[in-house]
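Note to self: keep these together.
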Amino acid sequence: MSSHAEPEKKLAAAASLDHVHDGMLLGLGSGSTAEHMVRLLGERVKRGLSITAVTTSRRTRELAAHCGIPLIEFDGSRAIDLTIDGADEVDAALRLIKGGGGALLHEKIVAEASRRMIVIADSTKLVASLGRFPLPVEIVRFGWKKVARHLESLGATVARREQPSGDPFVTDEGHFILDCSWGLIADPDSLASRLDAITGVVEHGLFLEQASMAIIGEGSKTKLVRRADESGFSSGI
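Structure:
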């Protein structure tokens, strides 16, 4: 990892909070960059910012509660004004790979319930093509080897995610994750459709339409990544 990664993550996290305003219901993402954002948000709440939030993982919920951020349980009855979340990869079309932390199912539910989603990341996460990072696929535990063989038949190298102890990694919803490597993904939309059609697949880490904007820490500045019809790139928030 680049020695600049942590400062860039903090820079992107701080810049994202310029889009947060009183009265918002926020979605708080998961992962190391999102954790920087949650801590900074907590400081603003202590200074008087009035927001409520929902979280995408048990770990984020524990951190947000520790930081004094008012939390509600998310049942889908109310639109989320803004979600801020990290990504394992983001390309120029704002297509993402997410799920390195194992929270992709909750992250996608929250993202799709949001009016806007801002992605925050360091410069190593901005890629020309998705696929260098293995794609997480969340699956039911029953018959999981059959699902793994199906994914292998699509050309993937498949590994069940494990804990450092060697035990299987289990998501907050009790599922397994298979990390799947295809190399560079030439057609993310086609791959997403094929994964959606596999019985036993709960969700996958291709987030192709959810993000509104990405804020990328790049040295001492930030770079905005927008969709092609929203002016492409701009630098220096």
